[in-house]
Amino acid sequence: MIRRAVATGAVILVLAILAVAPRAQVTADPRAFVGALGARALEVLGPGVPVAQRQARFRELLRNDFDIPGISQFVLGRYWRAATPPEQQEFLQLFPEYLVQAYSARLGEYGGAPFRVIGSRPAGDEVAVTSEIARPGGQPIQVDWFLVNRGGALKITDVYVGGVSMKVTQRDEFSSIIQRNGGQVQPLLAQLRQKIAGAR
């Protein structure tokens, strides 16, 4: 529970940075890509910004900069193959909206936090770009961004915050729900629909 709480707080901090970042230019340089995301991080996205505006920015971010199909398959794990094609398609639609509803309302609590790119390294077919997020009065948080080239455009496949993977954390949560429901994906879809509807 402690690890999940820490991971959730770190996810919100990262998303607060991304929400004030400009749209990254398509580039083959992973460090420049991540650097562009943080170019305007000092501009605070405060609580006065309407939630609808945060949600719209976050949807754009997910659509343009994240490998949602790949992440979706990962977070369902072996249950992706067990799901029917209609269930897979519905999950691809519900998952990004779930992320929007789950985090956008809390982004204003954090605003923008300055960060800097400090290195990069190969990671299989991907590239990991390491950055640090400054925290007033505290130690900086290391954030590793995993990127893949999709047809000349870089896409974020995962973010490790303090060594904790965002998508692994999400997979553990979803797997727990599916396992409690006899390995069926429909109960997870129902919960996602309910959470999304309840947040609107």
Polypeptide structure, described:
- The chain has helices at residues 2-20, 30-37, 51-65, 68-76, 78-82, 85-103, 166-180, 186-199; strands spanning 115-123, 126-133, 141-150, 153-161, 164-165.
- With 200 residues, it is an alpha+beta fold.
- Mean pLDDT is 80; it is low at 22-26 and 40-46.
- The protein has a single domain, classed as Tgt2/MlaC (Nuclear Transport Factor 2, Chain: A, Roll).
- The chain has a 5-stranded antiparallel β-sheet.
- The chain is 52% helix and 19% strand.
- Helix 4 (68-76) crosses helix 7.
- It is built from 8 helices and 5 strands; from the N terminus they run H-H-H-H-H-H-E-E-E-E-E-H-H.
What features would you highlight for this structure?
200 residues; alpha+beta; Nuclear Transport Factor 2, Chain: A; 19% strand
- What is the CATH architecture annotation? Roll
CATH fold annotation: Nuclear Transport Factor 2, Chain: A
Q: Tell me the distance between the termini.
A: 27 Å
Describe the sheet with the most strands. 5 strands, antiparallel
Strand order of the largest sheet: 1-2-3-4-5
Sheet/helix structural class:
alpha+beta
Q: Spans with pLDDT under 50 lasting ≥5 residues?
A: 22-26, 40-46
Give the tally of structural domains.
Answer: 1
Query: How does the overall form come out from the CA principal axes?
Result: globular
The oligomeric status of these chains comes to single chain
Task: Quote the average pLDDT.
Answer: 80
Radius of gyration: 17 Å
**Strand count:** 5
Helix content: 40-55%
